[in-house]
Amino acid sequence: MPAIEVRNLKKTYGDTTAVADISFEVGEGEIFGILGPNGAGKTTTVECISGLRSPDAGAVRVLGLDPGLDREDVRQVLGVQLQESQLPAKIQVREALELYASFYREPADVGRLLAQWELTDKATARFGKLSGGQKQRLAVALAMVGNPRVVVLDELTTGLDPHARRTAWEMVEQVRAAGVTVLLVTHFMEEAERLCDRVAIIDAGRVVAVDTPAGLAAYGAAAGQRMRFRPSAPVQDALLLALPEVSSVERHGAYLEVAGNSEVIGAVTAFLARRQIIAAELRVEQNSLDDAFIALTSHPGPSDGPHPTSRTASEETR
Ligand SMILES: Nc1ncnc2c1ncn2[C@@H]1O[C@H](COP(=O)(O)OP(=O)(O)OP(=O)(O)O)[C@@H](O)[C@H]1O
């Protein structure tokens, strides 16, 4: 049984379609990422999974339970990271944990949670006085207080400095090590690449790709590559642009930046070699999840036709 199952989910707010048609499955023990531009429908999707919103159409299951119908049972197995604004500034760290523990049949031990999330020293500190990193540690501790089997972490690291972000990543790994399935909503490619077993890229209320980070990066590589170099002799842009592999040429002082398809590097270096031009300080940009994200989510205006249908990115690169 999947930990989370989302089937043809749809949710509108008045005239706004937040979720047009979203389907994906998360296996038990996975760290599954949801990545997408602002307004893509990520939060609405996780709110439907958490039972905070009811879908207009489609089905959601958490460990086989319907968050709309089996509300209480879902609450017992699903931990949801609270948004910061949902805690009063004056509540103390231990108080917050004890309060939330009281909502569960088999809560975790508050003392152990404080120690695990390095909050023992802050047990009597007020929420409003915590640093961003401490607030996030408390948010995760609160999500874990009911000993959940699945946790939803929505933009856990937004607003954190790079050090606190790394600590947060370690927390996510600790959560998974405890056998808990993690659904992670993020804006950061690096985070998805580092943590997630699989990632769904969501755009305009639809899933545009589901794959491993490596599979998505391979899609990015196939979608295009970029090279930057300083030519040893003048090269005309028009000649480079005439190569079928080249899509754009930009000049940055003495440097040329050439982008194109997955064959562009070979095509441009062969072109230069034929003219005995050396590509000095050649740098080939490493393709990453970023490229896949841009390729999959940057789309022309609404008049230019429908969105690509859901696909497995690595299938497209085969
Ligand atoms: N309560 C609401 N009432 C009306 N419109 C809403 C509501 N919540 C979200 N929307 C709209 O639905 C769309 C999807 O929003 P959602 O918050 O799910 O996206 P998101 O991918 O989480 O975005 P972000 O990354 O900016 O948080 C947006 O156009 C948003 O403005």
TrEMBL record:
Molecular function in Gene Ontology: ATP binding
Keyword tags: Antibiotic resistance, ATP-binding, Nucleotide-binding, Transport
A Pfam cross-reference name: ABC_tran
Subcellular localization, as worded in the UniProt entry: Cell membrane
Name of the protein described by the UniProt record: ABC transporter ATP-binding protein
Gene3D superfamilies: P-loop containing nucleotide triphosphate hydrolases
InterPro entries: AAA+_ATPase (IPR003593), ABC_transporter-like_ATP-bd (IPR003439), ABC_transporter-like_CS (IPR017871), ABC_transporter_ATP-binding (IPR050763), P-loop_NTPase (IPR027417)
Keyword field contains ATP-binding: yes
Native species: Catenulispora pinistramenti
Protein's membrane topology: Peripheral membrane protein
Residue span of region Disordered: 295-318
Residues in ABC transporter domain copies: 4-229
Keyword Nucleus: no
Superkingdom of the organism of origin: Bacteria
